[in-house]
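In this section we walk through a basic example: taking a raw amino acid sequence and producing a predicted 3D structure, encoded as discrete structure tokens. The instruction is simple. Fold the sequence below.
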Amino acid sequence: MKVRPVTRTDISRLVELMIAFARYDGSAGEINIDSKKLEEVLFFEQPELYTIVAEDDGEVVAFLNYFYNYSSFELKKCIWVEDVFVSESARRKGIGDALFDYVRQEAKTSDCARVEWLVRRNNQSGIDFYNKLGAEVDDGTIYVKWKL
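The resulting token sequence is shown next.
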């Protein structure tokens, strides 16, 4: 198993995995991506999105998308994990741990205050996994979305 930054040759597989994630997450009707736009976003001079992938036996089986935001309270950058998905056949192999270890190290290297992400309340296996990582699941936060 290997975790690494996404490459241009991974784009079509990444789109497949993102669509699989949307189905798994129950948000398939919301996904609106195409390979060309994804490539532009990831490989722009100043990327708007960063992606790491995990390979298992040479096949990309997982991804984690993140970007940088800023904490006005701590006056430091933070990393926001937008999406993370491990193919069903690749679960329980330590791939999720490896993806989050990578992004945690990236946050430390970039002098970030923290790494944050959301999890659906009904995703108990995800909540259990994040607790196992040592992350704090904040039940008091309510996610607000304003679609434009």
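Looking at the output, two observations stand out. The first strand starts at residue 2 and ends at 5. The domain at 2-133 is CATH 3.40.630.30 (Aminopeptidase). In the next section we compare this with other chains.
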